[in-house]
Amino acid sequence: MTTIDIDSLTVGQLKQIQALVGGGREKVAAEPSRPVVVRSGQSGVWMGTLVRRVRDAVHLTNARKIWQWSGANTTSEIATLGVSKGSKVGPPVTTIVYGVCEVIDATSAAVAAVEARGWGT
Question: What's the domain count of the chain?
């Protein structure tokens, strides 16, 4: 193991270390607004318009919580095909979803199918 004398570090070396550990600042990826399906280990499956993503948090507008679905077996199929009759989809809200482990671009057909569903319709 290598030891470093912190008092002998140059400003350039400190900047390199700062860059490696993120510098204490969150880097926000510039992402275009687009419809997505988001899966979170903490709050389940959502479909909405992506505003921004910071690490495992996603800000969505026109977001609908998909509590239960039929017509798709996976979140990838929800993003491609949408959901069908019998699905339970909440009303549109603006939200930040934490604990995100998957973000999938959604097709316009999938968006239309999810927007056509309500609670148990």
Answer: 1
Write out the residue range of the structural domain in which residue 61 sits. 28-115
Does 10 score more than 90 pLDDT? no
Flag whether 63 is in a domain: yes
> For residue 80, what is the domain's CATH number?
2.30.30
User: Could you give the 3-state DSSP secondary structure of residue 110?
Assistant: helix
CA angle 67, 72, 78 (to 5 degrees): 70
Over residues 18-49, the pLDDT tens digits come to 666 555 555 555 567 999 999 999 999 999 99
**pTM for this one?**
0.74
Which residue in the block uniquely carries the two structure tokens 């482990």? 101
Nearest to 99 by CA among 24, 49, 44, 31: 44
